[in-house]
Design goal:
- The protein is an alpha+beta fold.
- It folds into two domains: 108 residues, Aminopeptidase (3-Layer(aba) Sandwich); 173 residues, Gcn5-related N-acetyltransferase (GNAT) (Aminopeptidase).
- 40% of the residues lie in helices and 25% in strands.
- The chain has ten helices and 14 strands.
- Strands 8-9-10-11-12-7-13 form a seven-stranded mixed sheet, with helices on both faces.
- Helix 1 crosses helix 2 and helix 4 packs across helix 8.
- The N and C termini lie far apart (42 Å).
Amino acid sequence: MRAGRVVAASLVRARRIPGTGLTVYRVERGPVAATPEDLDVHLRLMCDDLRRDAALVSVSPHYYGARGEAYESVLKSGGWRRMPTILSNYQATIVVNLTEDIEQIRGKLRRSLRTQLNRGARLGIQIKEGSDASAIATFVEQHDAMARRRGLAPIPGEVTRCLGDRSDSARSLLRLLIAEYEGQQIAGILLVRAGDRAIYEWGVTSEEEGHRQLPLSHMLHWEAIGWAKSAGYHYYDLGGYWEERGDEDPINRFKTGFAKEVQRFVPEYYYPVRPLLTGALLVLASLRARIMS
């Protein structure tokens, strides 16, 4: 804090390493800081506070452009090291510029995407906010079942609890949109609100035979774009883009159907609190990631 005002902050996720008494700490899409100088002070204080039982501390400030370069310079000069790419959060994303008129945004959609949106409307697919306990539970159950089948991480428990919290502070962080077809909830996306953007973070669509060809994701993201614009956000962030794969990757190609603007963020960095142990952890994690990929 400075003059009674918060100038830097982190939401730290902790994961204990069984049998060691040590913890891996990760700050995803953070810290946030008013200036590079504030970031520098915040990082030093955070590491001092976590040092007692930390095996690894990692950060990924969600900044791009000139500001991102300045913040990355702070990390480099402070002894932070770049996380191996295979273990990192995404470093680029596709964004829809919401400062344009909604008809301009729609006009820039890939023609095949507009066709799918029209088809979804004709089929009677309904997109709505998933605000009640039943919709939330169904989304989490569907997502986590899909994650288990594909070897992905489930939705974190703290996110599930936040979804169920109907307070204004909790509602300001997350928004769940669901798709219903013939009376069934068969898809959903969960958005995180962060600064000037709404970010697509988690999603699931039904893999049942009768649902696979429905334009569920198309309609969910288009509804999310409309909501984010009306809520005053500057960007709708489609949750990552793998530049090295280009549009040959089907997920990349789906996202570029909405927009072509790529933003590149500060990559994930880690601080070697215990250098030998940190190095061993990263080697093991990289091997596991390669096996799972």
